[in-house]
Design goal:
57% helix, alpha+beta, 152 residues, single chain, globular, two-stranded antiparallel ribbon, 3-stranded mixed sheet
Length: 152
């Protein structure tokens, strides 16, 4: 486990242990990066991403950890795990978007739903956190996506 998460709560450590086992069963690697952002594609850096597995290749959740608070890393991890669950459970919003971030308002709605699911996961696992601050960051993220959608 990456150093930033080594001093987190026992609940957080159990959450990560559970995620690793669930992801492994579905041929998805969990990777943490020492950098703040991770490369999703040639021209896109992001805090984290989920890539579906294929018949030939394992999928991946990758999360950037550099210079970030553990709770922000955990929220990002929960967000990407929520995308994994959308894929695993054949959620129509996920499959209609193909996880493509350039779809527009459909993507914004998917991300809004994902943020709610990620927050629910942290609560379900009793991760100690300032949930008001997390909700505020989620709202800011969704606002950013909406502003980006309008300006493109």
């Amino acid at each position: 486990m990456i150093r930033a998460l080594s001093r987190t709560s026992p609940e957080a450590k159990e959450f990560i242990k559970f995620l690793r086992a669930d992801l492994r069963q579905h041929r998805v690697h969990l990777r943490f990066s020492k950098t703040r952002m991770v490369r999703f594609s040639k021209s896109l850096l992001t805090a984290g991403f989920f890539v579906e597995p294929s018949e030939r290749k394992w999928g991946m959740i990758r999360v950037g950890c550099g210079n970030r608070k553990p709770i922000n890393i955990l929220m990002n991890l929960a967000h990407e795990y929520a995308h994994f669950l959308q894929w695993k459970n054949r959620d129509s919003q996920w499959h209609n978007s193909n996880g493509d971030i350039f779809i527009g308002s459909d993507y914004v709605e998917l991300e809004k739903k994902t943020e709610r699911e990620a927050l629910s996961l942290l609560r379900e696992w009793n991760i100690p956190a300032n949930y008001g601050a997390i909700r505020s960051r989620s709202r800011s993220y969704i606002s950013y996506l909406r502003d980006t959608e309008i300006n493109t």
